[in-house]
Amino acid sequence: MMDRVLFTKGHGTGNDFVILDDHDGALDLTPSLVAALCDRHRGIGADGVLRVVRSAKHPDGAGYAAEAEWFMDYWNADGTIAEMCGNGVRVFSRYLLTHDLAAAGPAGLPVATRSGVVRAVFEGDLISVHMRTPEVYAASTATIGPLTFPGIAVNCGNPHLVAGLHDGVRLDRIDLHVAPGYDPGVFPEGVNVEFTTPGEPVEGTDRHVHMRVYERGSAETLSCGSGALAVGAVALREAGLTEGRVAVDLPGGRLLVTADGDGRWWLAGPAVLVATGEVDVAALS
């Protein structure tokens, strides 16, 4: 294993990542190393790790090499692997563009993920990503202590459970220091749980939702892009709309979810690179 590794730190609405530039897949990236890098007291600190690797050089990305040169190898903070990360793919795209590793063409910048190829379009400070169409597929429940909330299961390439709060329960008062309960029969691989309340109308949108999220493998985060996509899909469905725009406000900022008239789903928000450095891998062990 390399003794010292270069890294970049970035975030999308407060959902932060350690980015590792490993074009040819030479780094021995292990669950323990990922967890150590993401440790906020003994490592760099992050909600996850994004490894920048050529699709052809990674077994999970090789099948997409003809469509996308770069594969987003995403790991949760606890060292588990995730299929997709909506904030992560925007930060990943920002990294590729900033470091001249790719150019954003008319059709957008293709990025391979474990749930398929997505495309990023740059609009000033915002990045819009053409995401996989969310699949709303089952009713379920989420529990916090003695409270049970009805929810809806949504597949965004990774699993989500969107639960609206009720009976005057305040979003800022729910305790997400521990993982919410869920039905493992519905979510055998675990699930990201989003809790929501409706917001006041926002100009230029069809719905406005406030959201907090507990991410599998990372605990509560300031933002979750694929979670916002799931929440947007549920909000439009409950409104009886097949297209429209939803403003999703999270503790880390606002994301916009759009279902356009061509049946495509977009996730838009900022992505910022804030620091670069070198980490002593041996010191993390």
From TrEMBL:
A Pfam family annotated for this UniProt entry: DAP_epimerase
Keyword Isomerase part of the UniProt annotation: yes
Major location category of this protein: cytoplasm
Active site: residue positions: C85, C85 (proton donor), C224 (proton acceptor)
Gene3D superfamilies attached to this UniProt entry: Diaminopimelate Epimerase, Chain A, domain 1 (3.10.310.10)
Residues reported in the UniProt entry to bind substrate: N15, N76, G86, N87, N158, N192, E215, R216, G225, S226
Site feature: Could be important to modulate the pK values of the two catalytic cysteine residues: H160, E215
PROSITE patterns in UniProt: DAP_EPIMERASE
Keyword list, A-Z: Amino-acid biosynthesis, Cytoplasm, Isomerase, Lysine biosynthesis
Pathway membership: Amino-acid biosynthesis; L-lysine biosynthesis via DAP pathway; DL-2,6-diaminopimelate from LL-2,6-diaminopimelate: step 1/1
Its EC number(s): 5.1.1.7
Top-level taxon of origin: Bacteria
Catalysed reaction, written as an equation: (2S,6S)-2,6-diaminopimelate = meso-2,6-diaminopimelate
InterPro entries xref list: DAP_epimerase_AS, DAP_epimerase_DapF
Stated role: Catalyzes the stereoinversion of LL-2,6-diaminopimelate (L,L-DAP) to meso-diaminopimelate (meso-DAP), a precursor of L-lysine and an essential component of the bacterial peptidoglycan.
Record family assignment: Belongs to the diaminopimelate epimerase family.
UniProt-listed PANTHER family: DIAMINOPIMELATE EPIMERASE, DIAMINOPIMELATE EPIMERASE, CHLOROPLASTIC
Subunit structure: Homodimer.
Protein name (record): Diaminopimelate epimerase
Taxonomic lineage: Bacteria, Bacillati, Actinomycetota, Actinomycetes, Micromonosporales
